[in-house]
Design goal:
The structure is a homotrimer. In chain A, about 70% of the residues lie in helices and about 5% in strands. Chain A is elongated, with a radius of gyration of 19 Å. Chain A has one domain: Four Helix Bundle (Hemerythrin (Met), subunit A), CATH 1.20.120. In chain A, strand 1, helix 2 and strand 2 form a beta-alpha-beta unit. Chain A is an all-alpha fold and about 150 residues long. At the A-B interface, helix 1 and helix 3 of A face helix 3 and helix 5 of B.
Chain lengths: ~150, ~150, ~150
């Protein structure tokens, strides 16, 4: 009879669940940032949205550079945060050391916060590239540990 | 020794699993809707796809408004349904009241069905905005309850 | 007292976790392929990225056909691999036959590898369409089995 790993009594799962939640909330915040940018720039994606702008200058455009910058940032979050959540959830099942696991979760989360700051200010490159690479490497590290434990 | 939460014997998990599955199937249906729209409008994304259209008018375009409308709807589903599944899965671990949880899952699912109807007909705004906001608020509510339970 | 399903001692979960991990790694590889294509074609999405190219011909463009092909492939992975992981994770909870489950996971993974080869070479259609359809049908099959088990 085995003790379940996926319970908040398991410190590794509780820490994972916390960082998965705040990383997901950070990703969801990009939706609000996109809406805000559309109103600021009067740049809407659909004809029926123009009335929301209540501004004579509101227009339909899919190429506003500031709106598209936020949207690329959002998509980049999806491309990186969703894999982190999937791999992190499976990584919990190998019962890693709580300290090692926590540092992976923390590093990933803060790398994505930094990535967004670097993307939106924007900071000169390679700032954003470094933010991306650290998060990517953290998820890869968990994936490799998981696969090694699976075949041990 | 703790009882596992992630089993269909747990009513909250069973309800979550049902709504997560049908929300994911709804999201997957957008792929088929995109393909259908590409054939209807003879608007394909790749040169090699034109032969599938078997129509002299088939062309490569990334700017057909009807195809792009379906694709934005699909991406909006990904931006909202994937966070719902992640946050909902973690929310199960705090062992919420079954009734409260079920209403969150139901509200989210129907808000996304309404969002798609409002996007594709389209209905006048703020219909789609309201559909989006209700789903978003539902996921936020689960996230807040989860974080409060974690730090209690 | 029920035995947890989500443990590596459960062969179905261990097999799922393996294929979910390598499918996610395959999806993550598309990020690197996009970066590589941007450097090869000197086609960057942001003005601040041009300095990374260190080439007088580096330019900002969102319409390079080769870069956009890789990006559509990446988005198609997200649209299909994320649903596979969600539905597959829930499918484990119905305790399916290990052999049946393993063939679903394997078929899905190899259909996505074939889809990417067909997209990037590219192979003549309907190669890519067949790769897409097999993966889609595999996820649908797990969803249907899950829903049937839930209402049995």
């Amino acid at each position: 009879m085995s003790e379940p790993f996926y319970t908040l009594k398991n410190e590794v799962f509780a820490n994972f669940a916390y960082y998965a939640t705040i990383s997901t909330l950070k990703m969801m915040a990009m939706s609000l940032l996109t809406s805000r940018e559309r109103f600021v720039k009067n740049a809407f994606a659909n004809p029926e949205d123009i009335q929301l702008g209540r501004d004579k200058q509101a227009k339909v455009t899919l190429t506003d550079p500031d709106v598209e910058r936020v949207r690329r940032n959002h998509l980049n979050d999806i491309e990186n945060i969703v894999p982190f959540v999937i791999i992190g959830l499976l990584y919990v099942s190998i019962n890693p050391s709580s300290t090692t696991a926590l540092w992976h979760f923390r590093t990933f989360f803060f790398s994505r916060i930094f990535h967004t700051i670097a993307y939106q200010l924007p900071l000169p490159q390679p700032s954003r590239a470094v933010g991306f690479a650290i998060g990517y490497a953290t998820t890869m590290s968990m994936a490799i540990q998981f696969l090694r434990a699976l075949f041990k």
